[in-house]
Write a structure and sequence with these properties.
By secondary structure, the protein is an alpha+beta fold. Helices cover 31% and strands 15% of the residues. It has a four-stranded mixed beta sheet, covered by helices on one side. Strand 9 (155-156) and strand 10 (161-162) form a beta hairpin. The chain is globular, with a radius of gyration of 21 Å.
Length: 297
């Protein structure tokens, strides 16, 4: 090995030692890596236990969309997701439904977050606000505006009621565009938002099959894509079951649910486990994703 090569090797080793010893890296190395890997694009593992190679960074603004909360560095995705978001936003604009505000996607190499999300780990999930800021419709938002404007909630989580004064009549049409796209596996919304859309849709509700009620999601909807056809190490989401507006939706307005919400549900003492449950191991390919060189700009 030449003297120059030896020096470069030593510098690389020193850089890795410093990075690994850094508190942020030690706490969660996935949050410390700020650039996508130089590998081919692939979503690896599951939505809540996986990683992302060859990620693409979502543009700050485009036809029908504006990114928000960009200071979090969570605006990366599989190119499959980026393409979908551009197509979806373009369709929203063409139908005169406004300009979407896209929030959290995934980190530069996917992986788990220290807080905020269990999913969003392999570049196929995106949070999109229900509300639309008037300034974003007229011009690009500044860096400060992107990180400080507030989303308007559609539901009161504590009272578990829809905030009719905040309801935007464009929401059902926007969600229908996403739901009818074959790339979409699920759309998660607050239960009261799902019930509102079921009331509006009436018997024309088959498109609501993919729209599922879930905890939170009172100020944004969460779009999840199916695995890209070429990604062999991506674990798919099971197809939705049941009728679009019955069954599972009813539970979210049952006595059992309200008891859980209010903290009055009876609790049974749980037997002490012999061993603490193990965290699921990430796919073996993720170690290579984490340590791979960064993609060139």
């Amino acid at each position: 090995m030449s003297p120059i090569a030896q020096l470069l090797s030593q510098l690389l080793a020193t850089t890795l030692i410093v990075a690994v010893s850094h508190p942020a890296f030690a706490k969660n190395p996935w949050e410390a890596v700020k650039k996508p890997s130089n590998q081919l694009p692939a979503s690896i593992g599951g939505y809540s236990n996986g990683c992302l190679s060859g990620a693409e960074e979502m543009p700050l603004r485009g036809e029908g969309f504006q990114l928000v909360r960009t200071g979090r560095d969570r605006h990366y995705g599989n190119p499959y997701l980026v393409e979908f978001l551009k197509d979806f936003s373009n369709a929203v604009e063409e139908n005169q439904l406004g300009r979407l505000q896209i929030g959290d996607m995934s980190m530069a190499r996917g992986g788990p977050f220290s807080s905020g999300h269990r999913s969003h780990q392999m570049g196929l999930d995106a949070d999109i606000w229900f509300s639309q800021d008037e300034r974003a419709a007229e011009r690009p938002l500044s860096s400060w505006e992107r990180d400080n404007i507030s989303a308007i909630p559609m539901a009161d989580e504590r009272k578990h009621i829809l905030l009719e004064k905040n309801w935007d009549p464009r929401i059902p049409n926007i969600l229908r565009i996403a739901s009818e796209d074959p790339r979409v596996a699920r759309i998660f919304v607050h239960p009261t938002v799902k019930r509102k859309m079921c009331d509006i849709a009436g018997s024309d509700n088959e498109w609501l099959r993919k729209v599922r009620p879930w905890w939170g999601h009172n100020y944004h909807f969460h779009v999840r894509l199916n695995c890209p056809p070429e990604d062999k190490n991506c674990k798919p989401q099971a197809p939705p079951r049941g009728k679009p507006c019955e069954g599972g939706l009813d539970w979210w307005f049952s006595d059992e649910f309200y008891a859980i919400l209010n903290g009055t549900a009876p609790t049974k003492p749980k037997p002490k486990p012999e061993k603490p449950p193990k965290k699921p191991e990430m796919p073996t390919q993720c170690a290579q994703v984490l340590t791979a060189p960064a993609a060139k700009p």
